Amino acid sequence: SFKMASDSPESLMTLCTDYCLRNLEGTLCYLLDNETLRLHPDIFLPSEICDKLVNEYVELVKTDSIFEPHESFFTLFSDPRSTRLARIHLREHIVQDQDLEAIRKQDLIELYLTNCEKLTAKSLQTLVSFSHTLISLSLFGCCNIFYEEENPGGCEDDCLVNPTRQVLVKDFTFEGFSRLRILNLGRLIEGVNVETLLRPLASLAALDLSGIQLNDVGFLTQWKDSLVSLVLYNMDLSEEHIQVIAQLRKLRHLDISRDHLSSYYKFKLTRRVLNLFVENLVNLTSLDISGHTMLENCTIPSMEEKMGQTSTEPAKSSIAPFRVLKRPLQFLGLFETSLCRLTHIPAYKVSGDKNEEQVLNAIEAYTEHRPEITSRAINLLFDIARIERCSQLLRALQLVITALKCHKDDKNIQVTGSAALFYLTNSEYRMEQSVKLRRQVIQVVLNGMESYQEVTVQRNCCLTLCNFSIPEELEFQYRRVNELLLNILNQSRQDESIQRIAVHLCNALVCQVDNDHKEAVGKMGFVMTMLKLIQKKLADKTCDQVMEFSWSALWNITDETPDNCEMFLNYSGMKLFLECLKEFPEKQELHRNMLGLLGNVAEVKELRPQLMTSQFISVFSNLLESKADGIEVSYNACGVLSHIMFDGPEAWGIFEPHREEVVKRMWAAIQSWDINSRRNINYRSFEPILRLLPQGISPVSQHWATWALYNLVSVYPDKYCPLLIKEGGIPLLKDMIKMASARQETKEMAR
Q1: Would you place residue 150 in the very low, low, confident or very high pLDDT band (cuts 50, 70, 90)?
Q2: Which ranges carry the Zer-1-like leucine-rich repeats region domain (predicted)?
């Protein structure tokens, strides 16, 4: 089922929601006085659509850097006569007091406010307007919602220095919330009296008090006939707590887990405590005791363990107290406890650190509210993916993507998650991944690069991008990837390894793409960035991969793109070319890349006069004799000169060297090349070569062009014969054979 889920296209509902949110003005809304969004008067939307619009909006603001939030978005849902809201999930700084205030007339059934740190006590008052309909409410991590701003009385000069003080609201309770059944107060700030706050609630079914320290929880027994779920994550427990829990006989889900790194913790879980739970909480289907130290021996001695296949049957349980369970638990949380390593665990789903299944269950269970635990679980997954093979690849990928999206600003999760993604997307897993899933990976990787200048995250993200087919798979985010990479390369202090990977990616991104892409990237400062890198390397006298990749990237980005060729010349590219030749006379790869690039510049008629200097022409002529990289350097030097010769004798504005002398050296070079040479070059179009055929002004240029075509179509016929035909090369060759000015050997080759 997992495979199918990731492959199916988005639902029409999702696509429409996404489109409307990205184009509010063109679809549901108009702009009033050029600033306020207003719903068109003839629009009426049911809660199924409105809930999705609001929840997706929050998701987009959080995970899509290009998406612009709207000041007045929530006001679109202020009138229940045209828009109905029922179940909404709001997160983090996206929501403020005035947003909740805007929707106060709605009859909300479910309201989740997660880590909404901007909400203050004004929002507590707004909550009251939902009190008659609200069934489920979460205020998890809303650390300021019980604070109000108070103007100090008798305002003297103090007003200017400190106009508002934060004061804790003491008198708010859930009085009047008659239908409220599910409540999450996780990470509530200290000083709020939980007992008084909750007393008015008649029949609570689920309560989450994560991270709250309460010495006395006796008040919980007032819901002993209704409470089915209780979460006390990271609460300091004592014997009194245990006795109270044992009275809540209706409980189906109990979570007393803890983060074992968070603080010193006196309480130890014993066999007696587990026995007490199992005997009294007869409806229990889910129990989480992660992070606890087990004091007495809760386990069956290994001699008495039943042999054979691992079993979920309670009777065979390796954890002694669970042998009396009527049936296996649906879920048992044992993450970072010794118990998860036992053989027989009587539960269908176990979170732990023993194997892939347990680790994935942990990531799934804790991502939403416990990033501190999740990052350690993802770290374990990273080891599994790196050392062994992941057997539940799609599930693993999806869970890591969700965690990275959910905790965009959590450094630990970004570091471990981006590292895990690198191993989960490498080639051995490639076959199992759909386009949609791979795009989701790219999106979260780019989010990570955007939010974190931190070296480890940047390196992990760049490495992960190398697992994709470039440019094809990155095409849908082309501008954004390039901007991010150029951003990395323009930083003043750079990590060597990141620099190397980023230049490699830049080079791959401009290889074999359309000219409009190249022009766009050129305008982003690509040429300048590469030349700066070359300049730095030259100053250090190092010719490494960064140097070679930078020249290669310039070769690619100038291919049939005159604007970028001009930029290269304007930013002193020729000066760097000469300095590199002089500094690194033996570096063949480098010479090939530099001359390939100059070949592109020479194809642009308007720029050729800038190459017409004694110094440049001498350098190109001398490189005709180069044996570097087979024939490539000599071939490219000859190509540059062929285009210059094509402009005729009147364009030859120099005394030294003589034009005839250079022509002679060009003939000698071409005759020395092996016609069957395999090539280190890639042509997308023959147009620049074909234009040298129908002319009589420079027979040597004609010969170079014919040699180039002959070599390419004979060594790589499958690739280049169709290209030659498609671009009209055949009639041009036929006409050239009839030309009087063409040399005999050129005609032979053309034939």
Answers
A1: confident
A2: 196-337
The residue to which tokens 């612009």 are assigned: 68
DSSP letter for 171, please. Answer: S
Mean pLDDT of the chain: 91
Long-range contacts of 36-41 (CB under 8 A, 24+ apart): 36/72, 36/75, 37/70, 37/72, 37/73, 37/75, 37/76, 38/76, 39/76, 39/82, 39/83
**At which residue do the structure tokens 């959080």 appear?**
62
> Does 156 have pLDDT greater than 60?
no
Separation CA 685–CA 699 (nearest Å): 22
Q: Which amino acid is at 704?
A: W
CB-based burial label for 610 (10 Å; 0-12, 13-18, 19+): middle
Check: CB of residue 389 under 8 Å from CB of residue 376.
no
pTM over 0.85: yes
At 4, the pLDDT band (50, 70, 90 cuts) reads very low
How far are the Cα atoms of 125, 599, 624, 648, 705 from residue 642, in angstroms, in the given order? 81, 10, 12, 10, 8
Write down the CATH number for the domain with range 612-750.
1.25.10
Give the Cα separation of 664 and 638 in Å (integer).
11
Task: Write out the two tokens for 661.
Answer: 């002398």
Domain ranges of the chain: 28-148+169-204, 612-750
* Rounded alpha-carbon distances, angstroms, from residue 59 to 405, 409, 733, 735: 9, 14, 60, 63
Mean pLDDT of 347-368: 97
Q: Write down the pLDDT at residue 149.
A: 81
